[in-house]
Amino acid sequence: MSDGLPVRDGIVIPRDELVIRATRAGGPGGQHVNTSSTRIEVVWNVARTRALDEEQRSLVLTRLASRVDADGDLRVVAADSRSQRQNRTAAESRLVAIVSRALAIPKRRRPTRPTAASVRQRLDTKRRRADTKRQRRRDHGE
């Protein structure tokens, strides 16, 4: 395994900052579930990490405020597979995806105007609908 999880643009989460715990998982699997610890929980402290600068740290903490606890820990869990290794890989990739989405800066929307053809089509449709309703009246618009 490498010494870190690459997130984006040169940002790498060092593996020594990750706390990885294996616990017993629920769900299907029969007796296997009762005896093996395959559920993986990965905890990363965003508040004290050296992988992010102050600006990135504050961005992640504000965008993931509902997922980060009071100590600054971001917790990701995987219990999809019966394999501890697969669950660890899944949890780490989820952590990377969550942090990457939190660091993404959305593109600014450029305001656009409707095309002349779409305006014309909208007005024609309104006119046709108004004519249809006018013809249904008793007095026929007179």
Verbal overview:
Helices cover 39% and strands 20% of the residues. The chain has helices spanning 31-35, 54-63, 84-103, 116-136, and strands at residues 4-8, 11-14, 18-23, 39-45, 73-78. The model has no long low-confidence stretch (mean pLDDT 89). It has 142 residues and is an alpha+beta fold. The protein has a 3-stranded antiparallel beta sheet with strand order 3-4-5. The chain has a two-stranded antiparallel ribbon with strand order 1-2. The chain has 4 helices and 5 strands; from the N terminus they run E-E-E-H-E-H-E-H-H. It has one domain (4-103): Double Stranded RNA Binding Domain (2-Layer Sandwich), CATH 3.30.160.
Q: Strands of the biggest beta sheet: in what spatial order?
A: 3-4-5
Helix content: 25-40%
List the uncertain runs. Answer: none
Based on CA inertia axes, which overall geometry fits? elongated
CATH-assigned fold name: Double Stranded RNA Binding Domain
End-to-end gap: 84 Å
Q: What is the name of the CATH architecture? A: 2-Layer Sandwich
Q: Please state roughly what percent of the residues sit in beta strands, choosing from under 5%, 5-15%, 15-25%, 25-35%, 35-45% or over 45%.
A: 15-25%
Q: CATH top level?
A: Alpha Beta
